[in-house]
């Protein structure tokens, strides 16, 4: 193992910032995390925020930085564009955007886009996880990447054939906090992956997705007529939305799915996919994004003829 | 036509209050409307609010009042319970609750409930519209009652066999104001029933309801990739949610549906149902609820042996 820092890898999303100081062989030497939102960051300036985190870890000024995520959006630091599907995910490094006039070398990776007039789609950040997941599990054909906006990705080798985003996570948080369901599902206890109400919700949403917006109201009626408990109702809401996502993604029994996730979402989606008969291979999302960032940096360096200093 | 007031008919919902001074033959002699919310009303007191509106119209103290809607909920004025399906909708008057200790005779009509452990449902207010709609169009088998929480009702003669609620209206307002879609669908221009983006959305939601939560995100992607206009995107959002409701309700071509609605919602649902090949019979929701309130009052009077003074 090498303990000499070679690269700073950053996953910079809309509401979370994660930075890892990496050695050349992929060892994590140090880490910084923050929950600063995009609007706060835009006000302070992206470079100021980044350099603040780097100074906390005393990162030398010659160390390069590779970034994926919303920092590359139009409202981000520097717009990093999209690669259109079908897209070879191993090329995201070669298509990175160098941030102009930065104090150090900083590159931002592009997102992916499905350019379809009838059903367009975009991802930004997940393409880097996907590159890492592909390296971890090269034979995978379908990947599920749960989150605020869950992504379902079809791959052929290293090529992303297409993908679909489902608003599952945002629907869960919005419906449980901002609609009449707040009375039935309020509270903030975590949904447990082995809760029967969750798993029944998954199966109901998966089996009859057309009924989803009815089944949602039924949660409220269940509280009025049967005094259903809010924890149970919240678990059912989560299950229904995840089940409807599975129906939309066309999940079927015996299918093998690479689940790129971590923490509570990994546990929920693993249990939910298993309940629908899918064969799940777990890929840690943090490991995947770091591996993707490292690999993209290597490809960028090779393409641009520049090598990291280590 | 009689111009002598016989009854005060009130549709008292969560966010709207409508009161009509009626003659014995159903003529509307005067009207009061307000948008006071339930929490505001609960603070002032239901009787105070009602008597204020009655005094605005100089309604004599001996005139009875019949009320339907959320005023009869647990958090309302007096809980008026539910009739369980299958339920004869002509009996809601006989099952009304007399408000105790009121300054005048005030009755509140019960709601309807589907008592099913797996998919319970409730309505409160729509049962009275339904009674009026049944009297307007006795042969109808299916009624669509669009709104914040749209109701689809199956009737056999005067009996409500069952119903399903879809959260369509609340989803539209919440998604367009409280999620990432606010950037793509923000604004408050009305959706027009003949907008091609609306009608395409209806057909897409109806044909592939499992894809709804994906198609929602696609609206956002369409703005990022193609600069889709917010009015067009809002029309598509409305169409997708209504189309998904139709899929859930099992709408099929050539089916005859009684549409109990008024105003903008009537125009949108009429166009949407027609686009899916259904045969629509329009029933004005205001006319229906007044007729239902009158009929329920008559039934209550006959049952309780009391007659209106007119």
Précis, in short:
The structure is a homodimer of 310-residue chains. Helices cover 40% and strands 24% of the residues of chain A.
Describe this structure in words.
Two copies of one chain form a homodimer. Chain A has 310 residues and is an alpha/beta fold. Helices cover 40% and strands 24% of the residues of chain A. In chain A, helix 3 packs across helix 10, helix 6 packs parallel to helix 8 and helix 7 packs antiparallel against helix 8. Chain A starts with a strand and ends in a 6-residue tail after the last helix. At the A-B interface, strand 13, helix 4, helix 7 and helix 8 of A face strand 13, helix 4, helix 7 and helix 8 of B.
Count of DSSP strands of chain A = 15
Distance between the termini of chain A: 14 Å
Helix content of chain A: 40-55%
Q: Give the DSSP E fraction of chain A (strand runs of 2 or more residues).
A: 15-25%
Q: Greatest chain-chain interface?
A: A-B, 44 and 44 residues
Q: Report strand order across the widest sheet of chain A.
A: 3-2-1-4-8-7
The quaternary organization reads as: homodimer
Q: Count every helix of chain A, treating DSSP H or I runs of 4 or more residues as helices.
A: 10
Low-confidence stretches of chain A: none
Instruction: Let me know the average pLDDT of chain A.
Output: 94
Structural shape of chain A? globular
Indicate the radius of gyration of chain A in whole angstroms. Answer: 21 Å
| Most strands sheet of chain A | 6 strands, mixed
N-to-C SSE series of chain A?
EEEHHEEEEEEEHEEEHHHHHEHEH
Q: What structural class results from the helix and strand content of chain A?
A: alpha/beta
């Amino acid at each position: 193992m090498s303990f000499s820092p070679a690269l700073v890898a950053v996953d910079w999303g809309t509401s979370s910032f994660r930075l890892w100081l990496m050695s050349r062989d992929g060892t994590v030497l140090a880490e910084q995390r923050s929950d600063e939102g995009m609007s706060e960051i835009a006000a302070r300036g992206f470079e100021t925020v980044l350099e603040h985190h780097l100074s906390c870890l005393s990162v030398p000024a010659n160390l390069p930085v590779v970034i994926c995520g919303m920092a590359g959006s139009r409202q981000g630091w520097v717009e990093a564009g999209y690669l259109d599907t079908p897209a070879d995910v191993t090329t995201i490094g070669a298509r990175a955007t160098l941030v102009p006039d930065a104090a150090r070398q900083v590159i931002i990776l592009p997102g992916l886009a499905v350019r379809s007039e009838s059903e367009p789609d975009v991802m930004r950040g997940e393409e880097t996880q996907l590159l890492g997941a592909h390296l971890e599990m090269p034979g995978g054909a379908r990947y599920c990447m749960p989150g605020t906006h869950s992504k379902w990705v079809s791959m052929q080798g290293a090529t992303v054939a297409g993908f679909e985003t489902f608003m599952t996570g945002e629907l869960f948080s919005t419906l449980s906090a901002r609609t009449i369901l707040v009375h039935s599902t309020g509270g903030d206890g975590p949904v447990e992956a082995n809760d029967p109400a969750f798993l029944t919700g998954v199966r109901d949403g998966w089996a009859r997705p057309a009924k989803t917006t009815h089944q949602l109201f039924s949660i409220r009626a269940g509280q009025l007529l049967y005094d259903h408990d809010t924890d149970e109702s919240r678990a059912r809401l989560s299950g229904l939305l995840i089940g409807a996502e599975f129906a939309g993604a066309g999940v079927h029994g015996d299918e093998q799915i690479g689940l790129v996730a971590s923490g509570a979402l990994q546990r929920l989606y693993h249990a939910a996919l298993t309940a629908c008969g899918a064969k799940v291979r777990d890929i840690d999302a943090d490991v995947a994004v770091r591996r993707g960032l490292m690999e993209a940096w290597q490809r960028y360096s090779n393409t641009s003829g520049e090598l990291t200093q280590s």
